[in-house]
Specification:
The chain contains 4 helices and 7 strands. The protein is α+β, with helices and mostly antiparallel strands and 152 residues long. The chain has one domain: Endonuclease/exonuclease/phosphatase (Deoxyribonuclease I, Chain A), CATH 3.60.10. The strands form 2 sheets. A 5-stranded antiparallel beta sheet has the order 2-1-3-7-4. Strands 5-6 form a two-stranded antiparallel ribbon. A hairpin with a 4-residue loop joins strand 1 and strand 2.
Length: 152
Amino acid sequence: MLSLTKNYNYVNRTYAFTSLFTISIFYCFDYFNSACRLEKLVNEKENLILLGDFNIAPSDEDVHDPLLWQDKILCSSEERRHFEEIKALGLLDTFRHFKQDKNLFSWWDYRAGGFPRNRGLRIDLILASLTMKGNLKTSILCPFKLSSKGRE
């Protein structure tokens, strides 16, 4: 079991946990500096967990309607390329490591009534260092119940 002994800092909704310290990962695609720091963390730490609101849907299976979202914010080729570069440093998308049902999302556009129709995206992600792969048991999205005006 991984023990987080130090507190963490909330910076731009994405953080990296190690057993010793925490570092913010990116701020508006300050990509080069962040990638260098992340690469150093991955190389120095045996067990690293990077989690948060990445604001990136890594693939079309993480989007309710890939054609509608094609090359738009959260789903652009550039964002997905950056995400793949981060994974290539030696990190694993824990959710996609396991077989998952379709249409599981972590964000819905409330302005368009996305939640009741499950028109969402998976943009909240948990990455773990490849060294932790054998210790992973499951990775799930917490289900939500919609309760509005007597409906559940």
